[in-house]
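hey all, quick one before standup. I had two proteins in the batch that finished overnight and I want to keep them in one place so we stop losing track of which output belongs to which input. First protein below, input sequence then structure tokens straight from the run.
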Amino acid sequence: MLLLLTGCNSLPDSGPTEAQVNHAQRNPQKNTIGYGIVQVTPELVSLLAGEAPPALSSLDTNNAPTTRTNNDTVGPGDVLQIAIYEIGSALFSPSSAAMTASSASGTNTQPSPSTAASLPLLSVDGSGDVDVPFAGLIHVTGMTTDQLAETIQARLKKKSQSPQVLVRIASDIANSVMVYGGVQRPSRIPLTPNRERILDVIALAGGEERPSGDERQPQTDEDYVVRLIRNGRIAEMPLKAIENDPAQNILMQPGDRVQLTFQPRTFTVFGASEHVTQMHFRTPTLTMAEAISRVGGPVDARADPNAVYLFRFENTDVLRRLGLPVDANAPTSPVVYQLDMMNPSNYFLAQKFFMQDRDLIYIANSSSNKFYKFFGLISTIIAPGITAAWIAK
């Protein structure tokens, strides 16, 4: 009997049994990362279903601008187009001298028409100043185009007859956002007084760039992650989550940086299943029941159906609500969820337990598997001898 047990323990195996998993979790020398084992229950499924991913709207709530921006102000780096209309003796018209001479000689009896002059494009320097001929140096940061036009006009009134000024931002740098990554046209997107939102600027950049790949692995909006960088703070969400929740389609602010990244979601399966593999979700959502069925489920000959484990780095807030010890400074902590597939009611729970990217499913080996494996090995060894003896007889 001792030889039999020794032989069973020396056989290779694909992974631990339920008893070995539980023992390793309680052993501090083996459980060096401090994971806990949690049974899949209706309460757990409800708790996980109520958890929302980090929201982009948090950047608006906790870091709202002190003043509402209408995206129509001038700032450093902008290029301005200024047009000046004058009557009579004009400062900026090339024909003003000829008109003055003609008027003095009396040859021109018609009233002087208005003249228009477009100044060369003027750039706003890093200090927010622009130098306008005959108007001098003007600090323009924070001004609207109408306010800047009024300022220039006021400075020209003593030098020109009834000047009228129009200002347009030819190249808007101050009121713009950068959109890059997995979009068709990475570029700087100027913001307008219409106040674009994050989905608007992604669309203006051409939308997500669909990489050519395996047709069996279709790309969905859930496989794209939107990262927003604002004033040194970062938030990211799946593109689909923003599309489904209007509150996350937040207004853009000048200086925002938006990155779109293609991150195909996968899960991995180990242990006593038909296939040990890594698989893509291929659908917008995936439940634990669907994931297990895709790999053929537990193998009858060697699996322990009441010990199906899901390994995950879970949000620490969730684990804290489950009563597990967590590191307060860590955003995520390891946890193992156990599903007992011998309980028929748990099949309903498996249909509501949603998989996350990089989840790992392990189907434990049955404790009796080693005995049957050892018995099969002995049968393989002695079967040829029995057959030869029967033939010789």
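OK second protein, same deal, sequence then tokens:
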Amino acid sequence: MKHTPQKSAGPAVDVLVIGGGNAALCAALMAREAGASVLLLESAPREWRGGNSMHVRNLRCMHDEPQDVLIDAYPEEEFWQDLLKVTGGLTDEHLARLVIRHSSGCRPWMRRHGVHFQPPLSGALHVARTNAFFMGGGKALVNAYYRSAQDLGVEVRYDSAVERLELDKGRFVAAITASGERIAARACVMACGGFESNIPWQREAWGQNERGEWPAENFLIRGTRFNQGVLLKFMLEAGADRIGDPTQAHCVAIDARAPLYDGGICTRIDCVSLGLVVNRDAQRFYDEGEDFWPKRYAIWGRLVAQQPGQVAYSVIDQKAIGRFMPPVFDGTKADTLEELAALLGLEPAAFVKTVHDYNAACRVGTFDHTALDDCHTEGLTPAKTHWALPLDTPPFYGYPLRPGITFTYLGMKVDETAAVRFDGLASPNLFVAGEMMAGNVLGKGYTAGVGMSIGTAFGRIAGVGAARACGYTHPEFEEEMSEVSHAAAH
């Protein structure tokens, strides 16, 4: 094998941050605020900077009373129960509650770095109480953080993918880039994403199913093409303690016509709970009305991944129009069920029977798509437990679905310090944040905005930890985290 000569990086920096999204930027800003010199390496070119954070829209926030852009209250215990439900208990409660408590107080800091929030939204997501939305979305948030980083003197390099680290018994020494450059630093924060964009790794993780299919070959990537998981794989092979199942991910049912990469939020199909979903055999396979869409939308990608051909179809009638966020692609429209089936490539008789069986099972009470209403089915498997209205009002609409991977949950195990661990021992100067450790909180499932909660909390914690490893302190954050830790202990 030919070895590329390593080039000197010049004087060592205090804190090296690897990654360019929300968690990395939070770490870089916090370390710089503490007084450390900071170099941030982003693998993408400048125009694609920000990783998956470009596509985010909001932050899930705990609050005990109305706060600026958040209405009513969303107390810790309700947030925790929401997280517990979607993860099925596959979460570290201590770290989850740390994230939840941190979410209650991070917005003033975000505002100081140029992030703006918009007034509560109305519409299909029903999250004005639980989530704070960014003015201008994730792209505006990322741009604000980069501007603030520049103003504070953080050095940023684009097109700078890191392939491996130089380690000494768990201590970070230097990073080696794809070009062979060796960059030494006194401490390091890794926040460069999961392996969602690495289709061969996805294929290996998911394997072959009983039908002889390789499901991952039909996956679409909702976010950045640059999250290849190169450094994650290196760290796991280097012996970092791991967390998470490689097949678990933020996996959403998105429009099958979406691009392979970077489709973002507009490719999501949000009418699932207002109609029914069938696979390519025209059979239903899950309760479309199990819970509010923001709590359950991220289970549907995995459900579709388990269906033949990794494809499904969300079907509604005219009554649903105006009650959900319209997707970027128009639905297939037809005046009869038989015509819709033919247009979608479904066997008409099987599809019509599925719809008629569903219609006959509907027990319509008081329909309310903003509440867990009493419209449900009886004698139908699987049941539809809420919002069950017959599909009987043409025109009918169908949307093809594919699994859309946002980010993967396989990562590195951490504690409340965000330090990477080797055989249970914390590294003194190597930290991790964002997707690379989100599996500690998200063993499976997802609820809207919690990825940003995790990235913001652990990005800030990791940045302060890295600065502390270099001899710097951040008194304001130390006080904030002391209060959070005290609350967590009780």
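Flagging for whoever picks this up: The first helix runs from residue 22 to 33. Confidence is low (pLDDT under 50) at residues 1-11.
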